[in-house]
């Protein structure tokens, strides 16, 4: 396994730099819009644009990659992302910044599609699960660690536009200079929403709900922290804690869902997430240490929802449909994510900063109630008939397909 990781070290380094840059730049932009006095609803619209671009990119970027190759496409996506951010730095405009966020989402869909398809090519059935788990751990760590870079400079200037571009450009170096074998063409496919919902209504809605809640936290969390009296440094710690906590409960929750009815685990996770969100609402603007602790609890549970939803859907799928379903479920997440920051910002506009966690608590409770209802409509799947839970395999359908391949064909990850 060590030899495999070393063979893709350049690729993992590039992905880590991309995530770190994206982490600090996303949080900076949300804080900057608050400092500029943008209405909360406008901030939500701008932050949502990234996920719209991401959803579009997952459907179109494979054509670009297959036409020019992985390395050239990676360089092209980095160039467009960097140029877009630099151009946006000349303006203080929600229209320009919204267009930039959409372009970044599209480019990052292509970039992560390249990384994930490359990893998939290098892995075997026996090593794919561990390789993608390592990749996702690196993604969480770099995305969470990137939040802490917000302390480096004054957010009122253009420094963080340049820092974002610096990370993007540095990410291109190891990928462009790697001697690793060029991957096979990217192939993505998906079942229709109607077919997926017919197979697993709860699986589809869990993915949509995960997109709604988690994108709202990513996009509007810094606005919540700023409105709760956090300094810039404290905002970075708040967001870093929220993201990094997503690592903590992935495997414990996954093991429970493999052993018991996944729907009961989803219900428990959603009610616990909602309880933490209610605590964040009640303590808004009060005890900062308690807010950081509660956002850790919220992130720890909330970030397990997507893999739980995918795993639950997979329990009812034929093996031949698993890959097609993976692409559809990640698209379901993307559609939810496109709406999350916008809906959360509208709630915050009406209720104040705590409206963010009013929104996510409502999403969590509604999904828990739906899961309880579904438990009355269909018997549970026997443990021996279940697929194996795996953390989210990637950020695009390519990584999701790799995770599904591992889930169907390989032994559980130790």
Could you explain how this protein is built, in words?
It contains 17 helices and no strands. It has helices spanning 2-7, 9-35, 40-68, 70-88, 94-122, 128-147, 159-177, 193-199, 201-227, 232-244, 250-259, 262-282, 288-302, 305-314, 322-351, 355-375, 397-409. Helix 2 runs parallel beside helix 6 and helix 2 crosses helix 9 (201-227). The radius of gyration is 20 Å and the shape is globular. Residues 402-414 have low confidence and may be disordered.
Total helices: the number is 17
Biggest sheet, in brief?
none
Percent of residues in helices: over 70%
Distance between the termini: 13 Å
The proportion of strand residues reads: under 5%
Nearest-integer average pLDDT: 85
List low-confidence stretches. 402-414
Structural class: mainly alpha
Number of strands: 0
* Computed CA radius of gyration, to the nearest angstrom: 20 Å
């Amino acid at each position: 396994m060590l030899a495999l990781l070393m063979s893709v070290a350049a690729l993992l380094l590039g992905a880590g730099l991309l995530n770190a840059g994206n982490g600090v730049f996303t949080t900076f932009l949300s804080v900057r819009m608050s400092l500029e006095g943008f209405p909360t609803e406008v901030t939500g619209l701008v932050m949502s644009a990234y996920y719209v671009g991401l959803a579009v990119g997952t459907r179109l970027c494979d054509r670009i990659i297959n036409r020019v190759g992985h390395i050239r496409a990676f360089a092209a996506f980095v160039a467009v992302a960097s140029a877009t951010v630099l151009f946006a730095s000349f303006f203080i405009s929600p229209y320009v910044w919204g267009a930039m966020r959409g372009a970044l989402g599209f480019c990052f869909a292509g970039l992560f599609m390249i990384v994930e398809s490359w990893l998939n090519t290098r892995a075997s059935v026996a090593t794919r699960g561990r390789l993608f788990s390592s990749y996702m751990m690196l993604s969480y760590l770099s995305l969470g660690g990137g939040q802490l870079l917000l302390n480096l400079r004054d957010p009122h200037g253009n420094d963080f536009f340049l820092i974002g571009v610096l990370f993007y450009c540095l990410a291109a170096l190891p990928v462009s200079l790697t001697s690793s074998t060029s991957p096979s063409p990217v192939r993505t496919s998906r079942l229709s929403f109607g077919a997926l919902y017919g197979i697993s209504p709860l699986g589809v809605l869990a993915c949509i709900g995960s997109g709604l809640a988690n994108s709202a936290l990513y996009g509007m969390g810094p606005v919540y922290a700023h409105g709760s009296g956090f300094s810039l440094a404290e905002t970075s710690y708040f967001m870093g804690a929220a993201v990094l906590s997503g690592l903590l409960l992935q495997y414990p929750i996954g093991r429970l869902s493999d052993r018991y009815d996944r729907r009961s685990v989803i219900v428990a996770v959603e009610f616990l997430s909602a309880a933490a969100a209610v605590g964040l609402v009640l303590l808004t603007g009060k005890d900062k240490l308690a807010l950081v602790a509660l956002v850790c609890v919220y992130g720890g549970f909330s970030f397990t929802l997507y893999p739980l939803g995918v795993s639950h859907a997979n329990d009812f799928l034929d093996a031949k449909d698993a890959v097609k379903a993976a692409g559809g479920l990640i698209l379901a997440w993307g559609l939810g994510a496109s709406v999350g920051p916008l809906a959360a910002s509208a709630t915050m506009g009406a209720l104040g900063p705590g409206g963010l966690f009013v929104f996510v608590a409502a999403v969590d409770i509604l999904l828990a109630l739906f899961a309880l209802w579904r438990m009355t409509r269909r018997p549970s799947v026997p443990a021996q008939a279940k697929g194996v839970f795996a953390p989210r395999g990637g950020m695009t359908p390519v990584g999701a397909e790799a995770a599904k391949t591992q889930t169907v064909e390989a032994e559980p990850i130790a």
